[in-house]
């Protein structure tokens, strides 16, 4: 109620306010707003009386926040994200009836006066003084535009918003001064265009284009008279006249606008009468903002792209600059996401692991040679509602990009990295190690950088099956995922070189730190993200070149200007021959090893299973020459649980393994993503093999594990091995360096000597090689024998290990 005295007259304070308000403001206006005064009238606010020349140019046409569009690689919309839902349009794309409606109700003399309509000001001041409150506004459209600019610039800062909207004479004079300058700089049409694009129309819609789409699901160019009147009426109070929540109020307000249009001649009386007979005619389009609206379950990828823009210095030197860029919006972000691959990954991730299962699945795919992320999906839906099993935790990426705190232990999927490091150090794939199913290793024999011992004490390592004891070469050990072999091999290579190779392949901890030099690293005891593993295996697929993952191909701003984007960095991590050899060996994993249930039948493919201690994490990472995919399954909530006697995706598992759940998920994702794609082949090589025990017992039903990965309560007897059987730190180089393996050189790539450590370093190799051969211990030089080559060389041209 207006603040009146019981007797009906104005109080003394109100009468004074009336006199001072009218006199001071009117006088100020007539004097050209040249007031140097301050005091109790609200003119003391800092910056109230700046010179006209200090008005910033962007105030006349400020950069308005608009929505960002995230597109896939084919230009399809994945999602929109905005600080304010706004699409800036030129005046020619706004129906003239909308322009007339807003002018009629907000400033009918807009085209007749300057920045200030003195008649309106005096009328409003007089009426407000009589009513004892704000009963009528006297602001012109230009003044309203000025206030909206202040609000826009205030952003989320509530103090600045309050300052921009405060009803003080000082603030009003400031608005008037800016309005006068803007009227000098811009035409009426430009002011009206800016006003219609900046104004808030309620329901999260900023600007007339967003409002037309929100309330009527059409463009501003297509608005009809009754619709335009409704929107024009919202400006005064978008919440109070909200047609969704208060339709009766909205109808009354709309009709007031229509009457005003008839009075001013903006519309004929006949058209106004017809418009008033219509109902509201709403066709609401709900606000769709953020990655929760992403198509094909690409919410996590969408969020990853957003985080890149907010964190990568290419989009701004400081965090605030990048944040302002995203908030200002108007960006069109063309990403690397393949719609076909994403659909396949989403189906794979949710097909065998349900969103309400006790564990989750993550699938991520990378293109070898480019680093492009083609898909990113997981079984949990993206969102905030935990009751609907939603999460914002992106299981595929590092912690800094929205992933888990540390990543996940990768288990045996780390073994190919050890194999690559070994070959880079000159160790032949035919190198063999013999052990029982359970072996104790001296920690002092593991060397870190600087050739320093890792520590003291011992470490017990076991294979999955008690029957897995004997002699293996590198191919057989990869196929069966023999833990003891790779611990022995890693011990010989040295932790420093293993970690260095991992770094070259882009493998780092989920925390962003480098992989640690620990013996447990050899069995995948480090926490790494699926994206990191997919990119690492893409190194094998691209014949030894690692390319850092990228998700953005192109970004343009609201004006269509191209912005710089992060580029992939491709560097050689290993020789082509080493990568070709890994590919050949990992083909055996999917053909007759632990990954048989994952293998594709229509093209070359390779991969590796992984299951960690207690079956808390299960993996399959594999690839073709043109696609690398990592699949992880495990507990994403709280302390990881062991996956024994568990139902996942409606299927019961007595124990989850890399080959029996992640493997089939991988196959589904790969099959869908590669449908219709060219069939490419790996570069074939002759990888030397040794006559080992494993050849008579290939495969083991698609299972794989690492030490301790057994059901609790099922202990096995300890086995004490004679000293020297496993060996340790010898190099096995020239002159019989005493290495732990039964390595030998080759003469034709098929016959392998068995002299431990090597006798003469291959200097006198002959045609006949056997248990008593002097052909050969392998050495990095691969010294050529008299009639044969005494070892394997990194170049792959000696010792029978030659590309076909």
TrEMBL record:
One of its GO terms (cellular component) is outer membrane-bounded periplasmic space. Residues 725-742, 755-768, 778-804 have a biased composition (Gly residues). Residues 743-754 have a biased composition (Low complexity). GO terms for molecular function: penicillin binding; peptidoglycan glycosyltransferase activity; serine-type D-Ala-D-Ala carboxypeptidase activity. It catalyses: [GlcNAc-(1->4)-Mur2Ac(oyl-L-Ala-gamma-D-Glu-L-Lys-D-Ala-D-Ala)](n)-di-trans,octa-cis-undecaprenyl diphosphate + beta-D-GlcNAc-(1->4)-Mur2Ac(oyl-L-Ala-gamma-D-Glu-L-Lys-D-Ala-D-Ala)-di-trans,octa-cis-undecaprenyl diphosphate = [GlcNAc-(1->4)-Mur2Ac(oyl-L-Ala-gamma-D-Glu-L-Lys-D-Ala-D-Ala)](n+1)-di-trans,octa-cis-undecaprenyl diphosphate + di-trans,octa-cis-undecaprenyl diphosphate + H(+); Preferential cleavage: (Ac)2-L-Lys-D-Ala-|-D-Ala. Also transpeptidation of peptidyl-alanyl moieties that are N-acyl substituents of D-alanine. Residues 78-261 form the Glycosyl transferase family domain. The keyword Glycosyltransferase applies. Keywords: Carboxypeptidase, Cell shape, Cell wall biogenesis/degradation, Glycosyltransferase, Hydrolase, Membrane, Multifunctional enzyme, Peptidoglycan synthesis, Protease, Transferase, Transmembrane, Transmembrane helix. Residues 594-614, 679-804 are annotated as: Disordered. The chain crosses the membrane at residues 20-45. One of its GO terms (biological process) is cell wall organization. Residues 691-712 have a biased composition (Basic and acidic residues). It comes from the Bacteria. In the C-terminal section; belongs to the transpeptidase family. In the N-terminal section; belongs to the glycosyltransferase 51 family. This is Membrane carboxypeptidase (Penicillin-binding protein). It comes from Streptomyces radiopugnans.
């Amino acid at each position: 109620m207006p603040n009146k005295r019981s007797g009906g007259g104005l109080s003394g304070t109100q009468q004074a306010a009336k006199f001072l308000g009218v006199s001071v403001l009117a006088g100020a206006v007539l004097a050209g707003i040249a007031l140097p005064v301050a005091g109790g009238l609200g003119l003391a606010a800092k910056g109230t009386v700046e010179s006209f020349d200090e008005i910033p140019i962007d105030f006349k046409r400020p950069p308005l926040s608009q929505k960002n569009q995230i597109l896939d690689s084919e230009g399809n919309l994945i999602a929109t994200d905005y600080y304010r839902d706004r699409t800036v349009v030129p005046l020619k794309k706004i129906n003239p009836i909308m322009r007339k409606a807003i002018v009629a109700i907000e400033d009918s003399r807009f085209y007749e006066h300057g920045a200030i309509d003195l008649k309106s000001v005096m009328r409003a001041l007089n009426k407000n003084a009589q009513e004892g409150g704000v009963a009528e506004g006297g602001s012109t459209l230009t003044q309203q535009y000025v206030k909206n600019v202040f609000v826009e610039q205030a952003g989320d800062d509530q103090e600045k918003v309050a300052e921009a909207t405060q009803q003080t004479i000082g603030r009003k004079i400031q608005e008037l001064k800016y309005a006068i300058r803007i009227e000098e700089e811009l035409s009426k049409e430009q002011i009206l265009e800016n006003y219609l694009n900046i104004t808030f129309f309620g329901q999260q819609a900023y600007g007339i284009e967003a409002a037309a789409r929100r309330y009527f699901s059409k463009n501003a160019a297509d608005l009809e008279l009754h619709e335009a009147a409704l929107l024009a009426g919202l400006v005064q109070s978008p919440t109070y006249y909200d047609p969704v929540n208060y339709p009766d109020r909205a109808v009354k307000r709309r009709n007031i606008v229509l009457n005003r249009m008839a009075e001013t001649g903006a519309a004929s009386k006949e058209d106004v009468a017809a418009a008033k007979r219509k109902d509201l005619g709403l066709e609401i389009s709900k606000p769709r903002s953020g990655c929760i609206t992403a198509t094909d379950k690409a919410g996590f990828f969408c969020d990853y792209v957003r985080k890149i823009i907010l964190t990568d210095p290419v989009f701004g030197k400081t965090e605030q600059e990048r944040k302002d860029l995203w908030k200002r919006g108007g960006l069109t972000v063309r990403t690397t996401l393949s719609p076909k691959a994403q659909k396949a990954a989403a189906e794979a991730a949710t097909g065998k692991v349900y969103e309400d299962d006790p564990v989750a699945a993550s699938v991520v795919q990378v293109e070898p040679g480019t680093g492009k992320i083609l898909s990113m999906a997981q079984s949990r839906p993206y969102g905030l509602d935990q009751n609907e099993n939603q999460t914002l935790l992106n299981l595929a990426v590092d912690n800094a990009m929205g992933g888990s705190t540390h990543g996940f232990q990768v288990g045996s999927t780390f073994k190919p990295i050890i194999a690559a490091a070994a070959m880079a150090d000159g160790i032949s794939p035919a190198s063999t190690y013999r052990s029982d199913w359970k072996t104790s290793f001296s920690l002092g024999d593991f060397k870190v950088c600087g050739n320093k011992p890792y520590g003291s004490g011992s470490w017990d390592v076991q294979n999955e099956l008690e029957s897995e004891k004997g002699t293996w070469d590198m191919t057989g050990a990869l196929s069966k995922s023999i833990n003891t072999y790779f611990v022995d091999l890693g011990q010989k290579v040295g932790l420093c070189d293993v970690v260095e190779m991992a770094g070259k392949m882009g493998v780092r901890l989920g925390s962003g730190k480098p992989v640690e030099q620990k013996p447990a690293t050899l069995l995948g005891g480090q926490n790494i993200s699926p994206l990191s593993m997919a990119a690492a295996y893409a190194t094998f697929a691209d014949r030894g070149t690692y390319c850092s993952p990228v998700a953005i191909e192109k970004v343009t701003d609201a004006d269509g200007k191209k912005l710089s984007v992060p580029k992939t960095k491709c560097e050689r991590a290993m020789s082509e021959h080493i990568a070709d050899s890994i590919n050949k060996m990992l083909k055996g994993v999917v053909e007759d090893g632990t990954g048989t249930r994952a293998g594709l039948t229509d093209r070359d493919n390779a991969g590796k299973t992984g299951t960690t201690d207690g079956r808390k994490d299960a993996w399959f990472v594999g690839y073709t020459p043109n696609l690398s995919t990592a699949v992880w399954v495990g507990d994403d909530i709280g302390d990881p649980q062991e996956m024994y006697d568990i139902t996942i995706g409606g299927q019961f598992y007595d124990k989850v393994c890399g080959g029996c759940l992640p493997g089939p998920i991988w196959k589904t994702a790969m099959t869908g993503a590669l449908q219709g794609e060219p069939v490419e082949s790996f570069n074939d090589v002759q990888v030397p093999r040794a006559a080992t025990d494993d050849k008579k017992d290939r495969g083991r039903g698609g299972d794989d594990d690492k030490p301790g990965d057994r059901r609790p309560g099922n202990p096995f007897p300890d086995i004490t091995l004679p000293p020297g059987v496993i060996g340790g730190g010898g190099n096995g180089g020239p002159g019989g360096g005493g290495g732990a393996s039964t390595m030998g050189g080759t003469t034709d790539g098929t016959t392998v000597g068995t002299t431990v450590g090597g006798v003469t370093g291959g200097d006198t190799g002959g045609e006949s090689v056997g248990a008593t051969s002097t052909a050969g211990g392998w050495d990095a030089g691969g010294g050529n024998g008299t009639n044969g080559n005494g070892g394997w060389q990194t170049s792959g041209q000696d010792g029978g290990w030659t590309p076909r």
